[in-house]
Design a protein that fits this description.
By secondary structure, this protein is α/β, with parallel strands linked by helices. The chain has helices at about 20-35, 55-60, 90-95, 105-110, 115-130, 140-145, 150-160, 190-210, 225-230, 250-260, and strands at about 10-15, 45-50, 70-75, 100-105, 135-140, 175, 215-220, 240. It has one domain (about 5-260): Aldolase class I (TIM Barrel), CATH 3.20.20.70. Strand 6, helix 8 and strand 7 (about 215-220) form a beta-alpha-beta unit. It binds phosphoenolpyruvate.
Amino acid sequence: MSASTITPWVIGNWKMNPVQAQAQQLLNEFKQLLQDHGIAEEKCHLGIAPTMLALSTVQAQLSDAVRPVYSVAQDVSRIAGTGAYTGEVSAELLLDAGIGYVLIGHSERREIFADNRDSLNAKVQNALNAGLKVIYCVGESLEQREAGQAEAVVLQQICDIAGVVAAEQWANIIVAYEPIWAIGTGKTASPEDAQAMHAKIREGLKQITSYGASMAILYGGSVKAENAVELAACPDINGALVGGASLNAQSFHQIALAFANTQ
Ligand code: PEP
């Protein structure tokens, strides 16, 4: 049983999946599971991050769920407001569409779409200033872990945003630790390794912000129903960012139950 008093978050990252008919079926199944086996909001917050295209539809479909399930954008523009920026969606436009949460810094955005310190700072700053809550993703590569640099890399990624986050805005940040070598690979960090890194992140956050002790730190990287209970039992793992397993309603529900049962 986790000793944490932080209400966990379980967020499904659908990435560039699925087609509309499957999304609808997935949401219907998930809503039914929530109805049949309730998970109270105070035991676990739930979120789903669909494609930008599906955000509003998913949000509408979730509006009649038996409990809140928050819609989360997978990314946001580094440009604020509105204007001639083809293909971009700003924090203000997300908020205007009723979306309250955004993932920033996912390793796929960093590695494939060239997000870097500057663009991430702009995204985090715009999102927070617009009033969005940010799930800020950090994590090391296998090479960095094998070179003994994991902790330094992750703490640096957190320090990177410190200059653009105002003191009170830390309350609107959730950190997601996602070792890159564990994402979509079926390899999960052991609960001991994940807890050790989460404890370091917690220490680092406490040095930066007075909210450090109360911020949720999620683990991501091949979380499944089979490993969720062990991960959820770790005191500094306050939830999960779930990729592949969130595309199966039963698995996602089981993972949420694992974290809710620690409360
Ligand atoms: C992710 O993309 O955030 C993720 C953790 O993916 P997976 O669960 O598939 O490893």
